[in-house]
Design brief:
Length: 194
């Protein structure tokens, strides 16, 4: 459907803007998730993992589009940190580490470990894109109970703002197999306590 959306944007002159603030920087097993779909956005948004722990975001577009935004409309003052050199250096270092360390290449293997371990009758469906999981419990109250259980036992989790019936799991790319096992055990214990 993304290819159809790209074509429709081309037909109508609309800009295709993709938000990879959470999906980018290797989270899905590719540096950028959109590359899986053989499309190129007109504008790409990056942040979170892009800064390697420092406050950094990016609005990425081709030169001509960026030039037009200096006057049609003027978008020159839409930044909080404005290319701060420390944040920019952290972003560059993050990119270098991601490309040279092999972390992205291990995402699917680590994701498979989660998928293999996260089996429980309370789970209606497990959806994932690399190390980004939606554990569908079908009930927002159950999700909140599991999140509380996880927090009490040292595992940070969340829900999706657009889907409060699914537990959100998005571990760092550096997670190892022992941490995966620990996190899954805590989640499964929380599910069993429902």
């Amino acid at each position: 459907w993304l290819q159809a959306l790209r074509r429709r944007c081309d037909e109508t002159g609309a800009l295709l803007i993709l938000d990879e603030i959470q999906a980018g920087m290797g989270r899905t097993g590719l540096l950028f998730a959109f590359t899986r779909y053989d499309i190129v956005p007109d504008i790409l948004l990056l942040a979170k993992g892009f800064g390697g722990g420092m406050p950094l975001g990016a609005f990425v577009a081709r030169r001509g589009l960026m030039q037009s935004l200096t006057h049609d409309p003027v978008l020159g003052n839409i930044t909080t940190f404005g290319g701060h050199p420390v944040s920019a250096a952290a972003g560059l270092a993050t990119l270098e580490v991601l490309l040279e360390s092999g972390l992205i290449g291990k995402v699917q293997e680590k994701a498979a470990m989660f998928a293999e371990r996260l089996r429980h009758p309370a789970i209606r469906e497990l959806r994932r894109a690399g190390l980004w999981f939606a554990v569908d419990l079908g009930d927002a109250e159950k999700v909140q109970k599991v999140i509380r259980h996880c927090l009490e036992h040292g595992v940070l989790s969340d829900w999706f703002l657009f889907n409060d019936r699914s537990l959100r799991i998005a571990p760092p790319l550096t997670i190892d197999e022992h941490e995966i096992a620990f996190a899954c055990d805590v989640i499964l214990d929380g599910l069993s306590a429902l």
